[in-house]
Design a protein that fits this description.
- α2 (68-81) crosses α3 (94-105).
- The protein has helices at 39-42, 68-81, 94-105, 125-141, 144-154, 158-169, 173-184, 190-193, 213-217, 238-241, 243-250; strands at 2-6, 9-17, 20-25, 46-51, 87-92, 110-116, 200-205, 226-231.
- By secondary structure, it is of the alpha/beta class.
- 41% of the residues lie in helices and 20% in strands.
- The two termini are 25 Å apart.
- The chain has a single domain (2-122, 187-253), classed as Rossmann fold.
């Protein structure tokens, strides 16, 4: 992977393909490797940029509190480093929240938006409390404390769980803690969707155990620019469970 210093943090990324710039943002608590099956399918149509978000994968981390908007700023800085003015931004789960934060902060740089197993709603009070309980757990016990239970929740496919467990277990404690705090404090972005006039693709599995598919269906009528794809029998990892169908849906953004 290549590395650049963005907002005083080393950020790692890969770049491949040709065509319209497309940034693929991974979810929590993962890294760019979740996209490796779908990336080759998109390379003929897109110039793909796959970063490891701050605190994850091969990117650096910080100990101070930050927001999803700060993580979106890292993405904008990365585009600047690559001399890319505008791009399609696609995010999985947490990456989707960061994509929405990018759309809010940098609307003139957005060529299209993709939300994969994500949503526009904030955490419920109960969800927020659960995140902070997990913060304490990870701070005390390390990432291993959540790796097995989290990988089991991500997908109904047992063949993918060991790989996901490996990715999660390799993450940095400070990165996981920082992301959890940022996720807990994220705002409601539902009204933002109605202001976006570039194409929006929403992709969700109907067996998602972490974000109910109804959250995706609820976005369908917010804007006429939105295309919704529901994948049958798919959990929280469409790009790994159904890479061909995921690529097909994302090609609507070209």
């Amino acid at each position: 992977m290549e590395k650049v210093i963005l907002n005083n943090i080393p950020i790692a990324y890969t770049r491949s393909g040709q065509g319209k710039p497309l940034v693929l943002l991974h979810g929590y608590p993962l890294d760019h490797r979740i996209w490796l099956q779908v990336a080759p399918l998109l390379e003929p149509d897109f110039n793909l940029i796959l970063p490891d978000l701050r605190g994850f994968g091969q990117s650096g981390t910080v100990e101070f509190t930050y927001s999803l908007a700060d993580m979106a700023s890292d993405v904008a800085e990365l585009l600047d480093c690559l001399n890319i003015d505008k791009a399609v931004i696609v995010g999985h789960s947490m990456g989707g929240y960061i994509s929405l934060a990018f759309a809010r902060s940098f609307p003139n740089r957005l060529l299209g938006l993709g939300l994969v197993a994500s949503q526009a709603l904030p955490d419920t009070p109960e969800g927020k409390e659960a995140r902070y309980l997990t913060v304490n757990q990870v701070a005390e016990q390390g990432v291993e404390a959540i790796a097995r239970t989290m990988s089991d929740k991500l997908t109904p496919d047992p063949n993918l769980r060991d790989f996901l467990y490996k990715i999660i277990a390799e993450q940095q404690t400070s990165g996981v803690v920082g992301a959890l705090k940022a996720l807990a404090e994220r705002p409601d972005q539902t009204s933002l969707l109605g202001t976006i006039t570039t194409p929006i693709v929403v992709l969700h599995g109907d067996a998602d155990a972490l974000i109910p598919v109804q959250r995706a269906i609820g976005m369908e009528n917010v804007t006429p620019f939105l295309s919704l794809t529901i994948l049958s029998g798919v959990g929280h990892m469409p790009m790994m469970e159904k890479p061909e169908e995921t690529a097909e849906a994302l090609r609507l953004l070209k």
